[in-house]
């Protein structure tokens, strides 16, 4: 059975990488701490729900988070 929800076409990655952040994950918008992990869920027609760990704060966003692969940090 085909998915009845239309999907937007995939976009190519930007030519220039975004400005580096202090860590690989964005900070929690509630307490401004750097999270160890961010979980997210989305249902069709509803905003994305982000859960920051270990602080446990929740945040809703109209769009899914932008995922990027970064090389490991050199010691």
Provide a brief overview of the structure.
The radius of gyration is 15 Å and the shape is flat. It has 75 residues and is mostly beta strands.
Summarize the structure in words.
- It is a single chain.
- Helices cover 0% and strands 20% of the residues.
- It is flat.
- It is mostly beta strands and 75 residues long.
- The model has no long low-confidence stretch (mean pLDDT 75).
- The chain is built from no helices and 3 strands.
- Strand 1 (37-41) and strand 2 (48-53) form a beta hairpin.
Please name the defining characteristics of this protein.
about 80 residues; mainly beta; three-stranded antiparallel sheet
Q: Terminal Cα separation, in Å?
A: 50 Å
The profile of the biggest β sheet is: 3 strands, antiparallel
Shape annotation: flat
Strand order of the largest sheet: 1-2-3
The low-confidence parts are none
Proportion of strand residues: 15-25%
Task: List the SSEs and their pairings.
Blueprint: E1 37-41, E2 48-53, E3 58-61
Antiparallel strand pairs: 1-2, 2-3
């Amino acid at each position: 059975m085909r998915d009845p929800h239309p999907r937007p076409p995939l976009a190519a990655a930007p030519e220039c990488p975004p400005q580096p952040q202090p860590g690989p994950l964005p900070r929690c918008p509630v307490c401004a701490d750097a999270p160890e992990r961010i979980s997210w869920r989305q249902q069709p027609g509803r905003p994305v729900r982000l859960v920051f760990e270990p602080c446990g704060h929740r945040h809703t966003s109209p769009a899914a988070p932008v995922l990027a692969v970064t090389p490991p940090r050199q010691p």
